[in-house]
Amino acid sequence: MTTRLYSHPIFLEHLTPPGHPERPDRLRAIARRLEDPDFDGLDRVEPTAADEQLVLLAHPESHLDRIKAAIPEEGLTRIDSDTTLSPRSFEAVMTAIGASNAAVDDVFGRKADNVFVAARPPGHHAEAEKAMGFCFFNQAAIAARYAQKTHGAERVAIIDWDVHHGNGTQDIFWSDPSVLYCSTHQLPLFPGTGAKGETGVGNIVNAPLSPRDGGSQFRDAFTSRVLPALANFRPDLVIISAGFDAHHRDPLAEINLVEDDFDWATGKLMDVAYRSANGRLVSLLEGGYDLEGLSSSVATHVKRLMKG
Ligand SMILES: [Zn+2]
User: Fold this and answer.
1) What is the pLDDT along the chain (308 residues), one digit of tens a residue?
2) Contacts of 135 (CB under 8 A, 6+ apart)
3) Annotated catalytic residue within 125, 165, 185, 247
4) I need a labelling partner for 188 at 20 to 30 A (CA). Which of 47, 51, 118, 252 fits?
5) What is the largest distance, in Å, between two alpha-carbon atoms of the chain?
């Protein structure tokens, strides 16, 4: 097994206001954890920034222009009450897109069996025409379309276990049957979407969890809704929107997952990838705001990716 890890110092240069949960220390905590000798076998690569035109795979040019124009020369620009841009945010997000697209190239080109992208800002709340929820462009959506355009993927599955619903990914693929979007998330919670009845053209599977649910409800949601949809869809590529804010320590939500739940779900999605996608799996960091819960969950997730 070769597991590739993408990270880059530019991801620390996307700044948020003091006290904001989506902060550079998240990636520092992950990097420290992945220094453990257990991870010596990781293939560590620094990504390069994507061409701006690749944003247009999932967003109109007006959205790209709006974000570019909002980048401040100094200080922070506020897009909404919790989403801000700093002087190097554009470079950071374009490098995050470069990393997730390179990960797609890697698994199709057999340079890696699977890839974890430790980037920020996250992307799954970014709708086609709207930045929100700490997100500007939707890296998972762009990567899915990039796989279709560049590698001839016909069916891409995006599985999102971040504790918040990926309204952005759902919005972008709402009427696109070539992409299956499956999400487990807490409801009610920001952004408020993700009810079971939101099904797109039959390609959206929402499996909401209730506050205080834990591993057994999460695994039930996977087993009864997410995994059957994936078995039926037979993706050529599996993309995980891997947020770790459903961890019991996380301050932003009330779901009580433990590391073993992420290990289990990772294994199940690797099985899906082996059955129809030659093992091709790309995992993109989304949320996760308790530094200990985040870093130990990422470590468990990556260990499972490396083990096969
Ligand atoms: Zn989240």
Assistant:
1) 799 999 999 999 999 999 999 999 999 999 999 999 999 999 999 999 999 999 999 999 999 999 999 999 999 999 999 999 999 999 999 999 999 999 999 999 999 999 999 999 999 999 999 999 999 999 999 999 999 999 999 999 999 999 999 999 999 999 999 999 999 999 999 999 999 999 999 999 999 999 999 999 999 999 999 999 999 999 999 999 999 999 999 999 999 999 999 999 999 999 999 999 999 999 999 999 999 999 999 999 999 999 98
2) 83, 121, 122, 123, 124, 125, 126, 168
3) 125
4) 118
5) 50
For 188, the 3-state DSSP assignment is coil
Catalytic annotation on 125? yes
Q: How far is the CA of 163 from the centre of ligand 1 (A)?
A: 5
Three-class DSSP category at 229? helix
pTM for this one?
Answer: 0.99
- Which 3 state secondary structure label does DSSP give 14? coil
CA of 164 to the centre of ligand 1 (A): 4
- Residue 240 alpha carbon to ligand 1 centre in Å: 13
Q: How far apart are CA 288 and CA 40, in angstroms?
A: 24
Closest CA relative to residue 272, chosen from 294, 240, 297, 299: 240
